[in-house]
Amino acid sequence: MHEFAAARKAIEAMIQGDDLEGLLRQAEAVHGHLCPFVSLGVKAGHYAMKHLSATSTGMEEVVAIVECNNCFTDGIQVVTGCTFGNNALIFKDWGKTAVTVARRSDGRAVRLAVRPDYRQRLFEKYPAAGPLFEKVVVQRQASPEDLHRFHHVWEGMAKRELAAPLEEQLTITELTIRVPEYARIYASVICQRCGEAVMEPKARLKDGRPICLACAGEEYGLLTGQGIGCGRER
Ligand SMILES: [Zn+2]
Ligand SMILES: [Zn+2]
Fold this sequence. Notes:
Blueprint: H1 2-16, H2 20-31, H3 36-51, E1 62-66, H4 71-80, E2 89-91, E3 98-103, E4 108-114, H5 118-125, H6 129-138, H7 144-163, H8 166-169, E5 170-176, E6 188-190, E7 197-199, E8 204-206, E9 209-211, H9 213-216, E10 220-224, E11 227-231
Parallel strand pairs: 1-2
Antiparallel strand pairs: 1-3, 3-4, 4-5, 6-7, 8-9, 10-11
Helix pairs in contact: 2-3, 2-4, 3-4, 3-7, 6-7
The chain binds zinc ion (2 copies).
Residues 191, 193-194, 196, 211-212, 214-215 line the site of one zinc ion (ZN).
């Protein structure tokens, strides 16, 4: 049991010790690569956790309300410990690279948002980055060499942006919010068509028998790279 708690303790120690590089390494393991926006997420998470004197064990004592599902969000999840799986991560589908981190005990919160000119300044600061980004990420037609160079440049940017002043990257606002309710725990029912267990409020009744949304062919909420939308099995 205690060995499991230790991994998070290592992250808490990095937060307290201002070990941004250590935190970035942790985020890289989750995110899969290094890039400037994962770096910003790490910095925002670090700032918020210290500022709120918050600790997180993934029991919703701290919540992170993110306004985007991009690289930034992975930095936030790793450093704050608020994740998709522990319900302490709340997603507002606004398409803004921003986060509000709040303490459940008193609603004290801090919102960090990427400055509007940040992206442009970033590409000015690193002239090699723009054309590579266009080729690799936007058009998705990079050669293996392009890809290699892209990761190299991106990694260098992530590390340098880690050291750059936070105030030049993000706006910081203190606020008090009403923290969303704790996640509710629901009973499961068995879908009478596929036989799988399904959270009760997600099941539909057909002839008085529970059917999952997939089997019922009904619309369901779907989070993809496009944000929150609707899905339906056919
Ligand atoms: Zn990334
Ligand atoms: Zn089913």
